[in-house]
């Protein structure tokens, strides 16, 4: 997925159960509830070091590779990009030793001052992007978003990060999806100093962390969590944001149910007119059927942008642990 300060993200068989009335009443009373969201969020993560974003030639035959972490220049530790800039400005002439971590392997490369200075445009110590907030658990004070792992496009891997936060963002423009070309949301963080929650985990089922209680104003009514075995082929809804900060409900149809995921098509004419299909940045949009919280949008079919796939909420919440 692509990440930038301008936030263009970015875009990856149920068995029917029957209960006697008494059992159904007991089962319903014990259901867990979480709050469906659908808000567009800006994501900021402070990386655990200074990383190389592109393959860069240091000297004849020696390259830095995308994803390399620069740990030291000679004996000087490097912990952040501004730290790197300060240390480079104080370098004297002569060969220096770059101490590199490459996928857990320690590497040493020789480079002169000019070569080290030329690295600056190819370094980063943070990653940013956008997505959709899926749920808030009011009892635990936690949240989940995206429904899939963040993969930094320049590092080509899940970023190793020290800390991070999510922020409410405002949709300013939509680039429509067309067959073969995914569209995307163009959005900006509207309150950079006031975060929605911290990022504590970037897992295969999404990002998770602690919710900021100061944002109770964006919370809706909690819904029962639907078990995967209850989902049926037929009509459903997604909650998502395509304009400003307003969360809207749009109709979809569940067309296929598998053990680990479900497939759907967009049927809402208003949404299709606005977006042309599923957009990059919709990942994490809640899916609701019969007033119960089913799961989250996770993927689109590039050649058929009106079709998408979703993750069951009970599976996604398992990734929070």
From TrEMBL:
It holds the Pfam family Peptidase_S55. It comes from the Bacteria. The keyword Lipoprotein does not apply. SUPFAM superfamilies: Trypsin-like serine proteases. Keywords: Hydrolase, Protease, Serine protease. Residues 100-321 form the Peptidase S55 domain. This is Peptidase. It comes from Sporosarcina quadrami.
